[in-house]
C-alpha cells in the first residue's frame, strides 16, 4: 500500500478484513495490544516505523483516530480540547483550537456540555477535532461513520474532504461504507481476509462491476440468489 502526500486513500472491506489492524500497525498501537509486525515494513518519508512506539510515531505528525468515538463521558467538550492541547505540546506540535470550530461549529455551541450527552455525530466530530488540534500531517481514521445516520455521515465526510483540501492533511480512511469513502478519496484498496484483492483510483473502483454488485448492492448483468450464495467464487478479482 502507498499513501501519497496530501491525498485521501480509502481502505475498505468487510468486518474482520484487517482494516483496523492495518491502522494500528501504522500508528504503533498494535504493539501496545501485544501484537507485532513480523513481515513487511512501514515507511514514512523513508524512515522505518515498523514496531516503533506509538508516541514516537505521533511525534512525526501521524495521528490515529480510533474506532468507536472514544471520549471521556464526564468531561466537557472544552476539557477534551484542553487535553488535546496539552498532548500536542508534549508531542512538539503547536496546538490550534480555533481550527476545530472552523470545521465543527456545532462543537462551539456545545462547548460546556459533557461528552456523554453529545449525539453520536457530535462525539465523532469531537474526537476528530482533538486530532485536528495536534496539527497532524497524516490522519488515520478508523470507521468514522460507525453508528451514524446517512445524513450525518455525508456531512462528516464532506468536512473530511474540506480538511484534506485546505489543511493539506493526508488521510488514510478505513471504512465499511464503500460508496462514501471512495466518493471522497483519490485512491482505494479493497481488503479481504487480511490481503489486498483490488486497488485503483477511486472513480475506477466505483465503476467496477464487482464492487457495484458485492459492495454497493447494485445488480449487474448476472444476479440470482444462487450467484449470491457462491459470490466468493464469482468475484472476477479473486
What does this structure look like?
The chain is an alpha/beta fold and 238 residues long. The chain has one domain (8-207): Rossmann fold. 43% of the residues lie in helices and 16% in strands. It is built from 13 helices and 8 strands. The protein has helices at residues 19-27, 29-32, 54-59, 77-90, 98-103, 105-109, 120-133, 150-167, 178-184, 202-206, 209-214, 225-229, 231-234; strands at residues 8-12, 43-44, 47-48, 62-65, 138-142, 170-175, 187-192, 195-201. The strands form 2 sheets. The chain has a 6-stranded mixed beta sheet, with helices on both faces. Strands 2-3 form a two-stranded antiparallel sheet. Strand 2 (43-44) and strand 3 (47-48) form a beta hairpin. Helix 4 (77-90) runs parallel beside helix 7 (120-133). It is globular, with a radius of gyration of 19 Å. The chain starts with 7 loop residues before the first strand and ends with a helix. Residues 222-231 have low confidence and may be disordered.
Amino acid at each position: 500500500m502507498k499513501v501519497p502526500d496530501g491525498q485521501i486513500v480509502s481502505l475498505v472491506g468487510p468486518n474482520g478484513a484487517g482494516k483496523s489492524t492495518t491502522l494500528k500497525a501504522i500508528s504503533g498501537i498494535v504493539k501496545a495490544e501485544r501484537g507485532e509486525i513480523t513481515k513487511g515494513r512501514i515507511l514514512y518519508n523513508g524512515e522505518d516505523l515498523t514496531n516503533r512506539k506509538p508516541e514516537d510515531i505521533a511525534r512525526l505528525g501521524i495521528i490515529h483516530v480510533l474506532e468507536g468515538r472514544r471520549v471521556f463521558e464526564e468531561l466537557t467538550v472544552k476539557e477534551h480540547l484542553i487535553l488535546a492541547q496539552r498532548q500536542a505540546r508534549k508531542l512538539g506540535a503547536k496546538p490550534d483550537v480555533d481550527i476545530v470550530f472552523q470545521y465543527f461549529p456545532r462543537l462551539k455551541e456545545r462547548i460546556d456540555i459533557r461528552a456523554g450527552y453529545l449525539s453520536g455525530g457530535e462525539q465523532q466530530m469531537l474526537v476528530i477535532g482533538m486530532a485536528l488540534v495536534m496539527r497532524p500531517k497524516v490522519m488515520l481514521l478508523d470507521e468514522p461513520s460507525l453508528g451514524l445516520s446517512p445524513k450525518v455521515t455525508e456531512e462528516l465526510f464532506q468536512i473530511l474532504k474540506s480538511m484534506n483540501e485546505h489543511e493539506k492533511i493526508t488521510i488514510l480512511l478505513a471504512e465499511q461504507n464503500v460508496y462514501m469513502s471512495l466518493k471522497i478519496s483519490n485512491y482505494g484498496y479493497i481488503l479481504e481476509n487480511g490481503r489486498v484483492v483490488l486497488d485503483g483510483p477511486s472513480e475506477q473502483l466505483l465503476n467496477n462491476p464487482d464492487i457495484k454488485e458485492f459492495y454497493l448492492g447494485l445488480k449487474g448483468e448476472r444476479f440470482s440468489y444462487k450467484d449470491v450464495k457462491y459470490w466468493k467464487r464469482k468475484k472476477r478479482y479473486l
